Amino acid sequence: MRQQLSLDPRRTALILVDLQEEQRQVRHYAVENFAAVLANAQLLLSRARNQPMATFYAAFKRDFKAVSPRPLEPLAPDGSPAFSDVRSPLTEICAEVAPQAGERVLFKNDASAFSTGELEPLLRQAAVEWLIVAGVWTEACVAATVRDAIDGGIRVLLVKDACGSGTKAMHQTGILNLANRLSGGAVANTEAACRLIAGSQVEVWVPERPVPLLFSYADAERIYETL
């Protein structure tokens, strides 16, 4: 259902998840419509910096020296990481949303931005109640980050058009599945999220109960658009 929401910027943080060159330049891992995702993330970042609001970045850099290969983890033919190898320049955060001095970057070896153990204490220290989440891939690293935030009692504002995946269908169903279990949180588009960051009261979508959205192949896109 839709209801009015306002955020206290002093108790709100923004995190951008895995907006790295690999998602733009590597064919197997390219995000559909990545330019639009980056542009929307850039808008969120600009508004957050204007507050100023606490801003974090997560970047997937698979480093076998830090975390050994897992038993069933896919590997490249030479035994190196199959993707997001820490040695690759393509793991760098895209220039459009590059961190500025004083903004924290979390380098992770797993899906969730919380996996390193650094993020939650930083959010607690800043008394963050709401975490604005954008990034890629929607059903993977974004989803893992959202779920860990909720498990930690942090409310999530999921910015649907500042997230993306390998295809539109993967992204949209990823958002719908997250919305179904977004306890205490909300879904908004970039325009609404920017207004919230600026201190306005805005109508957003919130789940009125667990699993409020029952969707099919035929109507998933229509339901996504209503969020």
- How do the helices and strands follow one another from N- to C-terminus? EEHHEEHEHEHEHEH
Structural class: alpha/beta
**CATH fold-level name:** Rossmann fold
Mean pLDDT: 97
Number of strands: 8
Low-confidence stretches: none
Largest sheet: number of strands, sense, barrel closure: 6 strands, parallel
In short:
The protein has 227 residues and is an alpha/beta fold. It is 30% helix and 20% strand.
Summary tags:
227 residues; alpha/beta; Rossmann fold; 6-stranded parallel sheet; two-stranded antiparallel ribbon; 7 helices; 8 strands; 30% helix; globular
Explain what you see.
With 227 residues, the chain is of the alpha/beta class. It has helices at 22-25, 34-50, 119-125, 138-151, 168-179, 190-197, 220-226; strands at 2-5, 12-17, 54-60, 104-108, 130-136, 155-164, 186-188, 202-205. It has a single domain, classed as 3-Layer(aba) Sandwich (Rossmann fold), CATH 3.40.50.850. It is built from 7 helices and 8 strands, in the order ββααββαβαβαβαβα. It has a 6-stranded parallel beta sheet with strand order 4-3-2-5-6-7, sandwiched between helices. A two-stranded antiparallel sheet has the order 1-8. Strand 6 (155-164), helix 5 and strand 7 (186-188) form a beta-alpha-beta unit.
Write the layout of secondary structure elements.
Blueprint: E1 2-5, E2 12-17, H1 22-25, H2 34-50, E3 54-60, E4 104-108, H3 119-125, E5 130-136, H4 138-151, E6 155-164, H5 168-179, E7 186-188, H6 190-197, E8 202-205, H7 220-226
Parallel strand pairs: 2-3, 2-5, 3-4, 5-6, 6-7
Antiparallel strand pairs: 1-8
Helix pairs in contact: 2-6, 4-5, 5-7
